[in-house]
Automatic annotation (TrEMBL):
It comes from the Bacteria. Pfam families: DUF7010. This is Uncharacterized protein. Keywords: Membrane, Transmembrane, Transmembrane helix. The chain crosses the membrane at residues 12-33, 39-64, 76-96, 102-119, 126-142, 148-169. The lineage of its organism: Bacteria, Pseudomonadati, Pseudomonadota, Alphaproteobacteria, Sphingomonadales.
Length: 175
């Protein structure tokens, strides 16, 4: 298990590019929300989300990371954790016309929940904290939306950028 985790951590630079690219996507969606409204922001989040893996892979390769072997038993876990995101997108899409802040807040919590599996993928419990913080932001935004209006997409983007920096420092220290 440790060998498989080490291989994935090396191939994806500890997941740092993915967290950073995801943070950028959320920030762009937040800015689009402010400029064009939540419906357009949801479209930006959807198409940006599709681009996260290929862009993060390109960043990892640009920094010299070699691909993981096709026989790595943890390869499937990365894909398997993506499937629930489609359910989350469906929920968010169903809510976007009725309650846009709730739609984004719930999707943020779902994305945060996905990060818990990354602790296993990369053998780094920092992902538990990242996931927990994202879920907390999503929950607070969902519960307190009327009392505490905030652009949850910008908040999530900022959280991911902070954690990308923390994860990058941890990855460098392990290398």
């Amino acid at each position: 298990m440790k060998q498989a985790q080490d291989e994935l951590r090396a191939a994806y630079l500890g997941g740092v590019p993915g967290v950073a690219v995801s943070g950028l996507v959320w920030l762009v969606a937040g800015l689009v929300w402010d400029a064009r409204g939540p419906g357009t922001a949801f479209i930006a989040l959807f198409f940006g989300g599709i681009a996260i893996f290929p862009l993060s892979l390109a960043v990892a390769r640009a920094f010299g990371a070699k691909p993981a072997s096709k026989t790595n038993p943890l390869n499937a876990l990365g894909f398997e954790t993506t499937v629930p995101l489609f359910a989350g997108l469906f929920v968010a899409y169903a809510l976007i016309g009725r309650d846009p802040p709730l739609a984004f807040a719930l999707f943020a919590a779902i994305v945060g929940a996905r990060y818990f599996a990354f602790a296993t993928l990369y053998r780094d419990r920092t992902y538990w904290v990242l996931g927990g913080v994202m879920m907390a932001v999503g929950y607070v935004a969902a519960i307190k939306a009327a009392l505490l209006p905030l652009n949850v997409a910008i908040c999530i983007g900022a959280v991911e950028f902070v954690f990308a920096a923390i994860l990058a420092a941890r990855h460098r220290a392990r290398a």
